[in-house]
Known about the structure:
21% strand; D-Maltodextrin-Binding Protein, domain 2; 12 helices
Amino acid sequence: MPQRRHLLATLAAMGLGAALPGGRRAAAQGQQRFASIYMFVPAAPGGGWDGLGRAIEQAARGGGLVGNFQFENVGGAGGSVGLPRFVAQRRGRPDSLMVAGSVMVGATLTNKTPVGIKDVTPIARLTEEASVVVVPAASDIRDIKGFFDALKANPGATNVGGGSAGGTDHIALGLMLKALGRSAKEASYVAFAGGGPAQAAIMGGQVKAGISGLSEFAEQIKGGRMRALATTGPERTDPNLPTLKESGVDVVLTNWRGVFGPPGLRPDAREALVRLMTEMHALPAWKETLRTRDWGDAFLTGPELDAFLERDRTQTEAVLKEIGLA
Length: 326
């Protein structure tokens, strides 16, 4: 039986669970791996990290993999405020996960913080998402060309709201300015601790534009409270919404997100968390979540994830130095 269960789990992770008797049921409802998971979100509620944490809860509980979740949100500085708390308080705890991603890499480099992603245990990269440039619905900026014109004419007067300083949103604005012949140091960037405050500032006209993950602003765009101008991805996610690159600015940038365990995990404890994420990733409910939220499937674990994180840190540091943010 242990061998058969292992085979079922392996096939489910490969999307082949239905190949064995009972496999279809196993892919939809897995064996409970944890009675409880503590999920730490180093950002305010309402943003991309919080959204990913809640989506994991929904899929893992619905799939029978986890009994219940306990959440804690501690926002600020691209995760730099909450990260030391997670490291200090959850060290060695095998039932703990933290949501993080590329924003934390950039923010910790920009802020020169002593604690970074290197101090936690990589478990799984899960999603990848393009950012979107938006303006309030009442803005006189009608399209991405109008936004570019405003940035070129007076970057300081064109304040742009987004996530934490040094994160993906900030980097995107810096790269746009550089491509337009201006300096990233001229940017008037307003950093917010979470998606909720950023949305309120954009819709309230406190900033002239905003940049964040497409899923974070999707509801406001669909509701007509924000106007989407362009995305930062390599190709269109919406046939009516151009990319920066096809609009004449050679900038392509995506935002990855994943989960990490605390430092000091035993190898078997890390493997148990990796197995949990692998089995969740195989659930039909997770596939549907990726589809409905327009998240790219960027699943990665193990040595390949470790190598990716090292490359990402090196590349992010090079970009931040190039545009004057580090």
